[in-house]
């Protein structure tokens, strides 16, 4: 493959423009180059972070020193801003807005099936159990992220636990599971602010009948990385639940490649985030306001839906902003869902109902 490229001298690194598709950096004394010419960078790795590159190859040209070839990422463009101002209750414990669901356009959001944004709201103290009682799932995973309050989970595999701010419950329904979700006893008694997100993640056909499972992920288990802006300043942080960034890896085990990050951005700063070519990229603003490189803006409970072509996005925080970063490899398979079951055919949905009713998905004791 022929690649057009430009040899960049060390004193030109900081002048690169986004329109330049390829950069060749002479790697001799690379750390010295970084320290002298990229604000905030002290080594080659931070130069590459600054340039937001995608490595292509390493080669040695006749008569030249060893070089690395990097291609600047093409930015994804915004398709639209997704919002749903209308809310509903799930049980008596979760007032949510369904930002999208598999009933709308499953192809556009694959591998994600549904996102419910719960709250923010405030609950009064009570001795009553608030939540959703025993119910089944098959064919996908549920990911519950708590920002305020506490949620307790119990399922037919015997797994369960209580999660609070920063914690995550990653439940793999797969072949079938029965579970319940309630406010924790302690939170019920105290009351207070409540906010959460529940995301449904599809499974490929080959994994839909895998054994069910559960990952309880605490805030302490999720690594946090600083996000640099174009001036080398810290523009915010990303807490990695799934996927990797800048050498850190989120703890969640996934069946297909995806990024699930809890991102905080400081007002006035601009960041470029990697989003793989061909992947669905749909960050949700939980609080604040951001502007995209296209000029589109999104605020509380609004989701930016990007075209899949491209390898990154640039966001500017208009105000201090919290967003849930979601990107994933689409699953190119039919999506047939009914209520708590998401499979590939109507026959499989009928079988799911039959298996649940006959107790094959287990029961809560």
Kindly summarize this structure in a few lines.
By secondary structure, this protein is mainly beta. Helices cover 10% and strands 47% of the residues.
Care to count the β-strands?
A: 31
CATH homologous superfamily placement of the largest domain: Jelly Rolls
The gross shape turns out to be: globular
For the biggest sheet, the summary is: 8 strands, antiparallel
Query: What fold name stands as the CATH topology of the largest domain?
Result: Jelly Rolls
Uncertain segments are 1-11, 16-71
Helix content: 10-25%
SS-derived structural category? mainly beta
Secondary structure layout plus pairing:
Blueprint: E1 7-8, E2 22-26, H1 30-37, H2 44-51, E3 54-60, E4 66-71, E5 78-83, E6 88-90, E7 94-100, H3 106-109, E8 112-123, E9 131-137, E10 140-148, E11 151-155, E12 160-163, E13 168-172, E14 177-183, H4 185-190, E15 192-202, E16 213-217, E17 224-228, E18 234-242, E19 244-245, E20 248-249, E21 258-265, E22 270-274, E23 280-281, E24 284-287, E25 289-292, E26 297-299, E27 302-306, E28 312-317, E29 321-328, E30 336-338, E31 341-343, H5 346-357
Parallel strand pairs: 1-2
Antiparallel strand pairs: 2-4, 3-4, 5-27, 6-7, 7-8, 8-15, 9-14, 10-13, 10-15, 11-12, 11-14, 13-16, 17-18, 18-21, 19-20, 21-29, 22-28, 23-29, 24-27, 24-29, 25-26, 25-28, 30-31
Provide keyphrases for this structure.
Jelly Rolls; mainly beta; 365 residues; seven-stranded antiparallel sheet; disordered N terminus; 31 strands
């Amino acid at each position: 493959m022929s690649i057009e490229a430009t040899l960049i001298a060390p004193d030109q690194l900081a002048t690169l423009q986004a329109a330049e598709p390829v950069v060749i950096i002479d790697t001799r004394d690379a750390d010295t180059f970084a320290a002298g010419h990229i604000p905030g960078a002290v080594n080659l790795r931070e130069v590459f972070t600054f340039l937001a590159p995608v490595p292509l190859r390493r080669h040695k040209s006749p008569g030249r020193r060893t070089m690395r070839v990097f291609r600047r990422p093409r930015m994804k463009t915004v398709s639209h801003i997704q919002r749903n101002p209308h809310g509903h209750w799930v049980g008596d414990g979760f007032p949510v807005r369904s930002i999208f669901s598999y009933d709308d356009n499953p192809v556009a959001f694959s591998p994600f099936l549904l996102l419910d944004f719960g709250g923010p709201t405030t609950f009064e103290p009570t001795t009553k159990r608030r939540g959703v009682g025993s119910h089944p799932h098959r064919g996908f995973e549920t990911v519950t992220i708590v920002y305020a309050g506490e949620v307790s989970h119990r399922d037919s595999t015997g797994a369960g636990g209580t999660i609070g701010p920063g914690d995550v419950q990653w439940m793999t329904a797969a072949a079938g599971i029965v579970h319940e979700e309630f406010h924790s006893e302690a939170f019920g008694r105290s009351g207070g602010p409540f906010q959460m997100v529940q995301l449904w993640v599809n499974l490929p056909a080959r994994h839909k009948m895998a054994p069910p499972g559960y990952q309880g992920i605490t805030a302490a288990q999720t690594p946090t990385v600083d996000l640099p802006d174009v001036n080398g300043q810290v523009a915010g942080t990303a807490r990695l639940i799934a996927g990797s960034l800048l050498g850190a890896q989120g703890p969640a085990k996934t069946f297909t490649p995806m990024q699930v990050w809890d991102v905080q951005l400081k007002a006035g700063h601009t960041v470029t985030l990697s989003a793989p070519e061909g992947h669905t990229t749909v960050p949700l603003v939980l609080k604040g306001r951001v502007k995209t490189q296209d000029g589109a803006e999104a605020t509380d409970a609004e989701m930016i839906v990007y075209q899949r072509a491209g390898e990154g996005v640039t966001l500017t925080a208009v105000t201090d902003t919290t967003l849930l970063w979601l990107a994933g490899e689409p699953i190119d398979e039919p999506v047939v869902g009914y209520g708590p079951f998401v499979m590939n055919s109507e026959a499989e949905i009928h079988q799911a109902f039959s298996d649940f009713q006959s107790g094959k998905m287990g029961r809560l004791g």
